[in-house]
Each structure stands twice: as C-alpha cells, then as structure tokens.
Fold:
Amino acid sequence: MVRALILRGPGTNCDMETGYAFEMAGAEVEYVYIDALLKYKTTILNSGILAIPGGFTYGDDLGAGTVMAARLNTIKGIMKEFVDKGNLIIGICNGFQILVKMGLLPGFAGRSVSLTVIPKARFCDQWLDLEVSNNRCVFTKGITHLYIPMANSEGRLVVRDSLILRELERGDYIALRYITKGPTCSDKRIAGLTDLTGRILGLMPHPERNLFPHSPPDWQDGRLGGEGLKVFKNAVEYFK
Amino acid sequence: MIYIEKGIKQDRDDPVSHVLREDIQLLGISGVERVHINEIFWIQGTLNKGSIERLIKEVIVDPIIEEYSIDKPLSREGTSITITYKPGVFDAEASTLKEVAHTLGYKIDRVKTGKRYILKGNLSREDIYLIRDRLLMNEMIQMEVVKMDFPSPDPYKFKKNIIPIREIDDKELLKISKEGLLALNLSEMKEIQSYFIREGRESTDLELEMIAQTWSEHCFHKTFKSPIRVEPEDYYNKKTLFDSIKGATEDIDADWVLLSFSDNAGAIEFDEDYAVTYKVETHNHPSALEPYGGAGTGVGGVIRDTLGVGLGAKPFASTDIFCFGDINTELSTLPEGVLHPKRIMRGVVAGVRDYGNRMGIPTVGGGVYFDKAFNYNPLIFVGSVGIIEKKYLKKEVREGDLIVAIGGKTGRDGIHGATFSSLSLDEESQEVSGGAVQIGNPIEEKKVLDVLLKARDRGLYRAITDCGAGGFSSAVGEMGSVVGAVVDLETAKLKYAGLSCWEIWVSESQERMVLAVPISKLKELKEVLEEENVEYTIIGQFGGGRLIVRYEGEIVGDLDPEFLFNGIPLKEKRAKIRETRRKACKFHYPEDLKGIFLSLLSSDNIGSRKWIIRQYDHEVQAGNVVGVFSGNSSPSDGIVIRPLLGSERAVVLGFGVNPLYGKEDPYSMAASVIDESLRNLIAAGGSLKNAAMLDNFCFGDVSCEEGLGDLVAAVKACYDYATSFCIPFISGKDSLNNFFIDCKGQKVQKVSIPPTLLISSISVIEDYHFAMTTNFKGDGNLIYLIGETKNELGGSEFARIMDIEGVVPSVDSIIAKKVFEMVSKGMRKNLFLSVHDLSDGGLGVALAEMGFSNRIGCRISLSKLESDLREDILLFSESNSRFLVEIRKENVREFELLFKDLPIFQIGRTEGDSLIIDAEDEILIDLPIEELYKRWKEAVEW
Structure:
C-alpha cells in the first residue's frame, strides 16, 4: 500500500480532509509537521506521495505560502530527488502557492509565475467548473471535467511575461483551467499546473472538498458529488 | 535600523489599492487619481548588505509582482502617509518575519511593519486627514509614523501595593472603585471591606482587581442571579431570572443533554460515543470601537470555549449573527468617536472572516440585521460548535496538579475587558478603554488547537479552561475554586517588559489556555508542545484551599475562594412590565403592491447575504451538507454539517433573532425567536426529539424598572416555550447595558438598543440523507402552506416599509409543536421535495426565495387560504410556525393524512419561470423569477 505523507505547518487546515481523501483512495496516510520534516530530512523518501494541503501557513504573512516555501527550500534537493525517483507531489491551494513560490512549479529556471491577490481583494469560496486537458499529469489522468470549490484570496495566477505563458501552453504544463474567467481572473484561466515530469500537481481549487454525494451545494438538484476523489485515486493507482 | 519598502510593480494590477480608491470615492472625495500601498519593514539586527538582499529575496519580496528599495522609500508620486501599529499591539507580519528569519539563520533582534499610502490627485489637507482617519487607521490600535524608533518599555520594579480599605467611609470606597475602573457598587465595596476586616489586614491592588473581575456583570451575571420583584406581582413567580432558564432545563430533564450551564459550553448527545458542544458569545463593546480586532477576538474567544469544554472538543463550525446600525446613516449625525455602521460592518465581517478562515473552522452562517437602533451599539454574536468523545466530557483538578499556561504570551491587552464590557459606552469610551481592544493571532490559536487534541488523546492533563474575560485570574480562580491554587506570577511569559503583577493576573491577552497537569505527565506534555513550537510555562500548582498569588516569592493576593465565588451581595432588583399592543391597527391597502414586494426583496434585512458568506471559508473540513444557500442561491433555513467524515450522522443548526419585535413586545419577541430557531432546525431536517437551545440576551439599560421589565418578559417567554416545546437550554450568555450616552445635542440623551434575544438551536439528524433544502426542485409539483396566517404585522419588514404598526406575532405552542413533529415525520417518509419556513417578509418573500436556485416559478391563489384577511396581510404577515412545502402529486394523500388535524392549504403549484399570485380572479403579482432574483441579489453588496 502506498504511503501518502501529509505535510502540516502552523496554520495548515485542510490536512484532515486531504488525508481522508487519500485513505478513501486506498493509501496509507501519515502526517508530518514541517519542523520534523526538516529535522529528519529523508523521511519523505519512505513515502510515495507528498501532499501539501490547504490552509494559511504562517497566516499568509509576507505573501501566501512564502514562509513555508522559504523553509522547504532548504530541502528542495531532496524533494527533487523524491520526484525523480518516480514519486508524486500534490499541492492544493496553499500547497500550490508553496510549490510555486519554491519554484518547483512549473519548474523553469528561476521564478516564472506567481499567485497573487484576486481582483475583489478578499477571500472567496465558490464552486467552479474546471476543464482538464493534460497528457502528462498523473493526478488528472482520465479526468476531463471537475466541479470543485475555490477558497482563497491569493489565487490569481500571473506569469512573468508572455514567453512564459507560451512555454506553459506549448510544453503542456497547464493541468486545469477554469471554464469561465471567474473570480480569480488568472492568466489564461489557469487553475493548476504540472511540471515536466507530470508527477507534481499544484491547483488552487479543492478536490478534497468534493468527496461525498452531499459535497456540492446543489446535490439535491441532481448534481451528486464525489468527483474530486478521482484525483486522489489516480495517485494511488499510479503505484499499482 | 534597516528600512525596507516594497510595493507592487507599477505595471502590475493592484486590486487592494483599487478597493481603497473606491472607498475614498465613497467618502465623497473625487480628486484621487491613483493610490499606492507599500509595505515597510523596520529591522534591527546584525545584517550585512549581502544578507539583507538574501533575506529580501527569500521571504520578503515576490520577484514576479513586487519591487523594493532599501534605506529609502520607493519612488512613487503623491502625498504619503505612513501608518503602523501602536506599541504593544500585535503585529503579525513582524512576528512571522522575525520567527522565519531566525529559523533561516539571520540575526534579527526586532522587527516592526507599517504601510505607506501614497495618494495622488487633487486632494486638500482636509481630504487627506479624512482619508487617514476614516480608512487608513483606527486610533485605538494604530498611529501615524513621523520617525520610527523601537522604544524599550521601562522594566517593572516590583512593589507590593497595599490598598487600605478597612477604615474608610462610603465615599472613599466608591472612589477606589471608580478610580480603579473596578465597576463595583457600594454594597459590593462594603462586603469587600468587611471581608478584609475579618481577615485582619488591608487589601492589595491585585486582590481588588480579582474580586472586581469575578463579580463583574460580564463574569457573574448579577442581573440574572439577583432576587427580583416584578410589578404586577403575579406576572413572574420565580426568585431570579436564571431560575427560569436553568429551571426550564431542570423541569424538562432531557436525557440527550450531557452538559448544561456547568462548563465552558453546553453539550448534547451526537451518537453512542460522541457529544456535540455549543457555545454562543457576544463581543459587542470591543467591536463597536475596533470592529476588525473586536470581532476577530470574539471568534477566537468562543473557539477557546470549545477547546476548554470537558478536556477539549474539536471545533467544526462557527456561527455569526450581527445587528448593525442603519447603513444609510448620515455620517455627520453621529457623535464624535462613533464609527459609521458601514465601517463597523465591514470591519466585523473581515474580522470574523480572517480569524475563522485562518483557524480552518467553517463559518457556516447566521444572519445580519440592520436598524438605526444599533447605530451606537452594534451586536456581534459568535458561536462555536465542537465534537468530543463523551469520555472526555469530565474534568477534575487534584491537589498537586501543576498549573500550566500554554499558547500566547501575556501583554497589556484587554486590561479591564471584563469590567469594561459591563459598563455602557459613551463618547469617551475610545479614550479610557484603549487596553480593552486587541488584535488576535489565529495561527497561534490554531497551533494550540492542534497540540491540545493530541495531548488530550494521550491523557496528559486532567482539566483545562480558557483564558477569557479576567485572564489568569478567572481561569486559575475557577479551576482552583475547590482545591485552591498557588501561582508565581513572575514565571508568566510576557510580550514585553513593564507589566505590573496585577496586570499580568487580569490581562486578557488572547490565545491562552490553562491546564491542570499531573506531575508524572509533564515530560510527555512538554514533548508534544515542543514538537509544534507551542509556548508553555508552569505558573504554579493547585492545592492548599486558598487562592494565593505570589510575585518573586512575596504574597500579593490571598483570597478565600468561598468569599470570591459566593460572597457577592445580591440586592433585590425591581422590574415593571409595560403594556403592549394587543389590537391590529388600520391602514390603507398599498397602491403599488408589486412595488412594495420588490422593495421588500431588496431591503437591507431581506436582500442576499452572498457577499458575506462567500468571504467565509464555509466548506473547510468537508462536512457541509446544507449551507447558507440551498442549491446555489435560495437562502436555507438551517445549516446541516457532518462533524465526523466516517459517520452519516449530521448536526443541524437554527437561529432566531428579531429586534424589531423586541421593540414592540419583548414576550412575543422571545416566543417568536424560539419558534423561528426551531422552524429553521425542522425545515432543514432536524427534530424536536433531541434538540436544545442557547440563549443570548442583549438588552439596553436594565438599571431602570421598565428596562428590566422587558428582560423579565423575555425570560418568562423562554421558560414558557422551552417547557411547552420540551426543548432545554444548554448554555447562555447575557450582555446588558448596551446603551450609549450621546452628549452631542442640546441635552444628554441615553440611547438603548431594542430588547434582543438570539436563540441558537441544535439537533442531530440520524442520517444526512434526511437533510432538506429550501429550493423548488421541478415543474408541476404542489405547494402547500402549513400553518395559520394571522393579522400579525407588528415589527414586520412590511410594517417597516409601510411605516405602520401592528401586533407582534404570537406562538400557539400546542399547534406549533404538532406542526414541527409532523414536518419532521414527513421528511423521514420522503414526502417533500423542498421545505422553507416563513419569516421576514412572509409568504411572498418565501415563495420568491424558493424559486431562485433553479429559476422555477409558481402559480399561487391566495383564496385557497380561506381567510377573511386582506391580500397584503396574507402575503406579508410574519405569523409563526408556518412552512411552505413542495410535494409530488403522488404523495399528496399520505401528506394530507399525516396532517389531517392541522391547518394546511394547497395554495398552488410550481410552474414556468414567473411568480404569479392571484386572489379571486385578480392577478396581484406576476414577475419573472430572474427579475426578483436580481433585485434580491444586488440589494446589499458592500
């Protein structure tokens, strides 16, 4: 059974349901606190999946994900080794912000994208339709559409310049897009990115919030939920 | 000192500055062309140029969107204002920067952050001051920077302060109370005097502070616990007010109640192994002065109640209800020092949002009311629901257990918070209560939550309580009330030097909990706390029978717990019941019924709350079943949420509050809000079989007989209806003296809030599939109205718009109870497609709301109600105990059989996409749902 390591830090708050999603998908789940991970650097290598869940690590101070990214950068080499060995990393919401600010996503030299304040400049929790069309990403295999909620105030994806945008599209780095422009107004409607290997996924909306029939607000109107689970199942299947 | 300034690159979009620019325009200042908001970091430490650059790149500046400068401001055109927090106010970003810099190996001693606002445009000096004072800073917590320095507070030189009390007269006793902001009256001061005569010594400052805090209205609830005499005498037959609330629970003796009025929160049974806990608090006074910090720390405080119930429950939902002033109030009519209702509202919503979201606890909803009566005294109710294994519900403190404080450090925050909230506000409140307002640190509390649950599961402590009002004094006092305690105050971790010993003792700094830890478990507890960097201190030990406080070995307080907790003299209070209207009044049939209907839908009190709820992370923890909206847009009645992802069982929450009724008739108001709260529960799938209620009384001046009479009437209704519905109270809290002394006009005016009671109710649904939403599901289904519609327009939204008076809705508890039971039963037989209760705006508004989500219209005939009442009254009366249900044709027989002895009316069917209402042959209303939805949705959006 593959082990999913769920990373926690001060202010992580989607760890429980992310862990639950991996358990439902058939993984063995273990939680690790950032300080313990940095102390016993190679813990990560004993698992197959590293998940960085949503939350407000360090209260979003200095920019969402910035502080966790700075701390994790001290073991960036080990994280790269982890992925190179065929393992998986998923960052959801704050986890995506962390992966982007570490530079692991999209993984170009230096920092090329960022996630910043959405146009309304305040937190927004809203269910959205997403389209998936990526040939490489392990997590989104077989998924063409997802209905899951965004819940952030710093989820607007922006790129350094148009060259980066072209490279993201040409190189198939875009894992998910919003179907409409939506509250984030991200460049090219980007909701999630993968890396060159397809084994890292970062996304702003929350697949772990659509695990049950009753998850969507309109579940009594014929739109039963549960489709977010596929993302986690894909990760577990990959190890079979 | 190093100065670093960062800002958004000029060619990048900066949404935060756009919002500020819009706000400036809303102030009526049109000359502003562009606004920049730059962040400043003042850093003291040993850093060379290279390491500064590295630090900036690592954690301060985002290279894609931001730019920076060192030791000089970024070049931006315009007038510049720099704002920072006052010394002693929590600066989250500075504290985080310091912490992370340390972990990364930088040598930093101190950090302070600020914001530099640069305003470009044609602005006068007055414009700039107005913008600064209204939008950029709140003097309670912030200041403009002229020159930055890091002042070092004078270290505290310990001196035991003896206050001679045994041989002084009444005048001097009162002087001590007033000058020390103790809020103690003469009979209380005299009781204290005779205590110290008995003890054979003088008092200390710390002892007086501790007694004042314990005996404050806020902590002791004197008004509820004092003997009361009511006129007319036969109106009220209980000795105290509390006898009605707790008495109701005792008389009902429900076996599903596990905790009531005995711990930090109430609790009912969830399943065989688990209990749900619930507590609702108010945080009115602080939120009136500093809305963001006040509301945020209110949320933080009530969450700590959940952490402090039993051995600590896990919070899984937060609730909020606000009563704000009239949003259209002219700014110039408000007295100096009073914030505009809109500013209060935005600050409060943001405060609740930021604390709740950062804690990872879904703020699932509640309600918002607007009325000019709340212009000076807004009401902020915050609730917290938790889940806990029943085996953890018991706590005990034993002789010899260590007193361990964990979480935040102690500062001068909230000094006199407990006594302050028991006084009324006036224009000087901003001056004297500076210390009572604070900014919370949700991440600290989240860290505490995470480690506590771990420590609890490993059995590392025997008792726990939170530091709320009264700080250590209250927490240690309560825990040591039986076995006693000895505390060494100099061990407490402080935010900064200079606090005197009594300040440490009563400080209300946030995010602190106190544990009773067996010595044998200390080592393991330390390990758990250290793993996640949670601070702790052993501040003393339980035992010895008395409450002894020492500072550097010298005794500064030594009180008998018996005196402290039972020695308060409770004087008889007198109350007088006022006459209320019993007859409906006459008014003309509205000429433009359609127009009135549209203005109701878009009124401040009925219009959509989407703009608020979207700001809350209401789906974190993934247990949401029915949220604030049914489908995507129809307002729900109750909230349904699953606390354990492995269990199908769900918790349902309902709310009832209606200050407009309270103005007219406090007894009927209380009856109505109980009915409304239970209607919410029932409509969402709950049942009376395992329900419980929480009461929160917010009243005005209860020192006068009429004011107290209103409270008596509301309390009496609580007893009457709780016992007839058989629904116990499990917890409650009162906030009295919500009035404001306005000295602005010719004469001094006392402005009280209307009698307001929030009833929060809770019940457990055995299977979440029985949860019910309010929105119409399809075409061609039948619509029934359950319950009788009467001429009860008093306090209704219709009456407000029409500017008329009327009778406040009453409750027939026998019929109501039967209706509630049958609706619950019908749900378990799957008879309904949707269920919506009738409340603000009556039948008309409820029908429109049911159509919103799926844009489904309906055809309704008012003649089916078989009533002599006029159509406008039938449409907008707010009579209680009524529901609308949508039913498939094939279920009609079973439904009618189930409700055969109850008033039900088949009033129409779902069809098309318009709301069409007729009476006899005349069509009264024919409007597309889309238009109604637009009116409703766009009504209120700030």
User: Anything to note?
Assistant: Residues 429-434 of chain B have pLDDT under 50 and may be disordered. The longest strand of chain B covers residues 32-45. The CA atoms of residues 248 and 568 of chain B lie 25 Å apart. DSSP finds 31 helices and 41 strands in chain B.
